[in-house]
Amino acid sequence: MATYYPPAGFHFKVEFVGVSGADSDTEQRFQEVSGLSVEIETEELREGGENRFVYKFPKRAKYPNLILKRGLLKGTALLAWFKSAQNTYFTVPIYDFKPADIMITLLDDAGQPYAVWNVVQAYPLKWSTSDFKSTDNSVVVETIELAYQYFERKM
Q1: b/e burial code for range 29-65 (CB count within 10 A of at least 16 → b)
Q2: How much is the average pLDDT of 4-17?
Q3: Are 67 and 143 in contact (CB under 8 A)?
Q4: Between vectors from CA 27 to CA 7 and to CA 92, what angle results, nearest 5°?
Q5: How far is it, in rounded angstroms, from Cα 108 to Cα 76?
Q6: How far apart are CA 134 and CA 152, in angstroms?
Q7: What single string gives the DSSP state of each residue in the chain?
Q8: How far apart are CA 75 and CA 82, in angstroms?
């Protein structure tokens, strides 16, 4: 009888499609990805005379922000993309800035794709770094928060 082992969640890569310079191996390495979830909003309808329950009707899908964390990089293409977005959002029409699709690939033991999520039209909202503490021996982590339209799981 074959035994199934679920994949490990630590072997993955993140690719920014359409961001100039973000195709290098260094730019694709992150230590954490969160926000790959979807929730269906509902609308409640109370019918007169029916006190046992409330009807719930589906409305639309809701996606949280995508959060990526990695060690601090110097001269990163994603930071240049973020600055481009920041300078474009409030000074010129939004169509001058191009959102990026993001491919998040979970890899198996052999380094082959096990599952792929395509995050559609992501754009940056927030960029932050971890606190600097003289009493702590930790790596400086930068956090990138992105909004997106939706995602699709390909495999």
Answers
A1: ebeebebeeeeeeeeeeeeeeeeeeeeeeeeeeebee
A2: 91
A3: yes
A4: 120
A5: 27
A6: 42
A7: -----PPPTT-EEEEEET-TTTTSTGGG--SEEE----EEEEEEEPPTT--S--EEEEEEEE-PPEEEEEE--SS-HHHHHHHHHHHHHTTS-GGGS--EEEEEEEE-TTS-EEEEEEEEEEEEEEEEEPPP-TT-----EEEEEEE-SEEEE--
A8: 12
pLDDT of residue 19: 87
Q: Which residues pair with 64 in a beta bridge?
A: none
The token pair at 70 is 């990695």
pLDDT at 123 over 80: yes
Angle among Cα 103, 108, 112 to the nearest 5 degrees reads: 65
How many Cβ atoms are within 10 Å of 96's Cβ, its own excluded? Answer: 11
State how far the Cα of 140 lies from the Cα of 74, in Å rounded to an integer: 12
pTM score of the predicted model? 0.85
CA 16 to chain centroid: 10
Average pLDDT over residues 113-128: 95
